[in-house]
Write a structure and sequence with these properties.
Length: about 290
Amino acid sequence: MGKRTFESTIHTDFGKGLTYSRYLQLDKILGAQSTLTEPPHHDETLFIIQHQTSELWMKLIIHELAAAVAHIRHDELEPCFKILSRIKLIQRQLFDQWSVLETLTPTEYAQFRSSLGRASGFQSYQYRMIEFLFGNKDPDAIRVFVHDPAIHAPLKDALESPSVYDEFLMHLGRRGMPVPGACTDRDFSQPYEPNADLIPVFKAIYENPGAHWDAYEMCEKLVDVDEAMSLWRFRHMKTVERIIGFKTGTGGSSGVPFLRQVVETRLFPELWDVRTQIEDVEPPARSGA
């Protein structure tokens, strides 16, 4: 086996300087996997790391979505294209992570599940923040965070603020497009209600992309993350069903039936509905030989 030469220019004296470990604060991150089973169950570490890494990816999604909202408010759509593309790739990481958790068999999970008590993914405030930023609002969902004002306050603010879709619709209105007032002048803490009168706006964008290129691209980027969210929810549901079947959730939900309710939730409904309304174009007739 070939031996790589240890180059003389590589720094080795880090008594006081900034190191990779110190920069990333690995002592905190790698020291945060505290199992509760006694003796420790081998697979509880997998369960903890699976959810901790998911929370780190979700933190980045929130960071990116906040930037996207700020850009749209300033009528800057183009920076959002990269942001939403990045979010889609993060969502892919979250989707693929379920395959690791699926190596946990029902028997293995049953041996440490009781140590979770009432802790549940439903209590992930970052997941709830993502839902609110995307526009899937549920005023009841923040009740589980009342005990922690530091979490409850920003969630309440996100609940009552326009989502990324709301901001996009207001942007289109500022461009002079006939966005119905009911879509933008409303109580943002309530779930968004689909409005058929909005479909002609998106139809005009899709049928004339040259005149509305940035809006056209924004529509497709939003559909990307909406689709990825649906796929993530479906994979979550099937992973839960595979591991615990139809047991109730540790947080008190019905489990799989509860998760199934949101699998087909559409964050941006008119962007899906407009596809049915786009007319097929007849090819030009061939000239005779």
